[in-house]
Amino acid sequence: MSILSVVIPSYNEEKMISKTAKVVAKILEDAGIDYELIFVNDGSKDNTWAEIEAANASNKKVRGVCFSRNFGKEGAILAGMSLAKGDCAAVMDCDLQHPPEILVTMYELWTQGYQVVEGVKASRGKESGLHKLAANTFYKIISDATNIDMSNASDFKLLDRKAVDAFLSLPERHIFFRALSSWIGFKTAYVEFHVADRTEGVSKWSIKSLTRYAVSNITSFSTFPMQLVTGCGLLFFLFSIFFGIYSLVKYFMGESLEGFTTVILLILITGSILMLGIGVIGYYIARIYDEVRIRPRYIIASTTDQPSITKVDTIS
Ligand code: UDP
Ligand code: MG
What we know:
The protein is an alpha/beta fold and 316 residues long. It contains ten helices and nine strands.
């Protein structure tokens, strides 16, 4: 019989672990699905790891992975996937905002032969107007870069073993699971779900971290910002042809002493656009630097299977 691995990244989720473990286990048991739950403690500062160990003690199908520090959700997904033993593996949030009943639907689609089952948000939950606008812009750019509509994408997905292995073989340091699961291809199905409200704890996202997340994911998937710089350059070139001819004509007509304000404006505009352009290029160089250093994407300090293990992500 096939096994479903459920990878659950957990960061400061002490209040959720035992509840999530019980709820998910019950739903999968009732549906007659053999499973394992892999909680990845992403360097939590609270008692998350102790809670995971307790959950493992009461249900051996619960496994735990403990990071040496906070590596971020994507690292946690990667580590969980690499330790998953199942014939298919799902990823869901620890806060039960991804309704666990959907796991059963996803699993059924998998048994019908789908290799990637994507959870799609039917609604985006409660968000302010500005947040919505920022999210829409972000997804617009990412969707253009990947050629896949990402506007309601989530990290709630199920991958067949083949897709998991393909995902794990990607060598890039910066991973964006949400988009990569589409990028790897395979026969894909979509399942709609409603984002539930978080019952315990708080969301880990601040405006600052969301901005950083958006910028780093855009630059990892798209060279659009660099093309924007080229676009500006082109625009200014046309502008300069026009102004060049205009000032030459004025010069030969003997009226060239005006236009000081225009000069100042032009210097300011070109100056700022040049600097912005260099900044964008610098950002991409920084990303290249990050990639070529080939640092591991996570470091495991311990697991419930082997408490004394220290494991470093090895793909290079
Ligand atoms: N998470 C993580 N590492 C982090 C931040 C978050 O593993 O550095 C986990 C978190 O425990 C949760 C999931 O990622 O299971 C989604 O986080 P959160 O609920 O804060 O995000 P939101 O639902 O608000 O988008
Ligand atoms: Mg959440």
